[in-house]
Amino acid sequence: MSECEKYKKIIESVANGECSEADKALLDTHVLECNDCREELAFVMSINETLQSLPKMEVPEDFLVSLNKRLDVEDKIKAYASDKAKRNIFRAWKKYSAITACLLLAVLVQINVWDLPVNNGSNDVVVEVSDKSAANKSVSDDIAEAEEKSVADVTDEENIQTTDKQPVDEVEFFLEEGENQKNTSNKITAKAENKDKSDGLLQKNPVVTEKKAPVQATVIPKKQENNYSVESENKTPVVNTQKPQSKTNEQEVVQTQKPQTSDNQPLPEYMDNKDNIIIVPEGTSRVNFDDYEIVVTEEFLEAFSMAEMPSNNVIVASPAAMASIENLSIDTSAACPVPETNYGAGSGSLLVAASDVQKVQSILNKYSTGAQNQTFMLTSSNYNSFINELKGEGIEYQDYMIHAGRSNVAFTLIAS
Amino acid sequence: MGEKELLKKCRQGDRDAFNILVQTYQRQVINLAYGMLSNTEDATDAAQEVFIKIYRNIDRFEGKSSLSTWIYRITSNVCKDFLRKRTRTIQSISIYESSEDDDDRPMEIKDSSPTPQEHMEITETQREVRKALDELPEEYKSVIVMYDLEGLSYDEISNVLQCPVGTIKSRLNRARKALKKNLSEKRELFLK
């Protein structure tokens, strides 16, 4: 590099404002002797000075005014875009809410269609409670006698009212009467309640046709303990009257009303001052209604779900039954699950020849998950295995109302 | 009113506050644009465009850089767009221009050269420097305008152009060389 090339680099650093004092001094000395470097330095410095002296542009007087006019247009565009967005959202909302409403309606109809009542013209819900057993079963004479005895033991604290003016708490409970129970069906009547009390769970005009398949509840007085016998000639399961262990104070709620028989005769006193509806799907649980057991059928449950039950009704059911009850939108807040060991009188009965009872019992012992007196509980798959083994053994049987599709199957073994 | 308060009001749609912001920065914006575009009309249009962009995007300013840096950055980008449009227009016109036409100016585009008034107000050296500056590539022009015309520091230019300081220094050095080369034919004018 020639000496001048070196000084021209220093000149560049001077133009960039990055020349050190030492280099500046050297350059000042050199330019005194070198015309080319002196002219180069002058040229570069002049360009810099000219750049820095270039006149500034003045802001036009109408700059702000014209800018604001354009900003007004911007605001209008923004407002339009916002309105358009809102319109689009509204259109979309209308469209999708209509679709959602239709879907919701379809779902509600689907849910409610199972429970659609048949209007019988009155606000009363009458549910026939009849003996669940399809066979010609009737309450034994012993039971009838025991019922009469237990009437006197019951304290009448509240009256069961049956007039139309009474609130929904009214429950009319008809009892089967001995051998004539086939001809006398018990009815449970629940009057329609003001919808204000319904908690949204009840229906305005709940109706259940009286002519539907009769739903029976069997009331067994407490003193019938240990009366159950496989060898009952009446083929009637006499159920244990043990109270469910889980019974709590929550079960004792609400006013009771004086039930009536079908011919409008007052029910026995033991029906007074009782808890209101205790709904239990038969075969899954057994409930003590004070000192009495009430076993209701699923039909009853289904029918009664249409009633405008007071919110303080008590529902006692097995854990399995609770799920089905909840699906019916019944207030289960006060429900008291029955321990699974409390078997119902059986979702059905299994009749076998008296000579086969012992063999059947031994087979049952292999498959049942529990037994109470002659009521057995099996899982659904075990029940199928049990039946298959019966068939394999050549044991003839008849099953009545055994719901084999459930996760747990319970039935009473009866010697025919 | 402090800058934060001003920005807050601008974000709330306060037009008066925005006008204050415009009046605070309009001179820097318009002169940066003028330095880049060498034309008062283009500089005014570009400056308005800058403030409209600021108005639209004030909510997006997060405060990571200073407000002036942000505004300079927008101005630099708007001017780049203007220069690109100008270049494309000149090129498209020139394709169809008759070869017999010695006039270098495109017939149907806006004349971006200094106005007659501008010619009167500046010296010959200033005019030549302005012309030579205008001939520089955009990346050289921007650093010279920001450093020499607007007096921004290396750090400020680095923030505006989002380049390292070393890159800015290097670019500035090359820009001066290019400017000197463009003015080499007029050397005598600067040595008077």
What class, by secondary structure content of chain A?
A: alpha+beta
Q: What is the overall shape of chain B?
A: elongated
Distance between the termini of chain A: 127 Å
User: End-to-end span of chain B in angstroms?
Assistant: 50 Å
The whole-angstrom Rg of chain B is 19 Å
Which radius of gyration of chain A do the C-alpha atoms yield? 45 Å
Largest sheet of chain B: none
**Number of DSSP E strands of chain A:** 13
Notes on the structure:
- The complex is a heterodimer of chains A (416) and B (192).
- Chain A has 416 residues and is an alpha+beta fold.
- Chain A has helices spanning 3-15, 21-31, 35-53, 63-113, 141-151, 298-304, 319-327, 357-367, 380-393, and strands at 124-129, 172-173, 186-191, 217-220, 287-289, 292-296, 316-317, 336-337, 348-352, 368-372, 375-379, 397-400, 408-415.
- Chain A has 9 helices and 13 strands.
- Chain A is elongated and about 140 Å long.
- The longest helix of chain B is centred in the middle third of the chain and has 30 residues, at 67-96.
- Residues 93-101 of chain B have low confidence and may be disordered.
- The interface between A and B is large, with 29 and 42 residues.
Task: Describe the secondary-structure layout.
The complex is a heterodimer of chains A (416) and B (192).
Chain A: H1 3-15, H2 21-31, H3 35-53, H4 63-113, E1 124-129, H5 141-151, E2 172-173, E3 186-191, E4 217-220, E5 287-289, E6 292-296, H6 298-304, E7 316-317, H7 319-327, E8 336-337, E9 348-352, H8 357-367, E10 368-372, E11 375-379, H9 380-393, E12 397-400, E13 408-415
Parallel strand pairs in A: 7-8, 9-13
Antiparallel strand pairs in A: 1-3, 2-3, 4-6, 5-6, 9-12, 10-11, 11-13
Chain B: H1 3-11, H2 15-37, H3 40-57, H4 67-96, H5 116-121, H6 124-134, H7 138-149, H8 154-161, H9 165-182, H10 187-190
Helix pairs in contact in B: 1-2, 2-3, 2-4, 3-4, 4-8, 7-9, 8-9
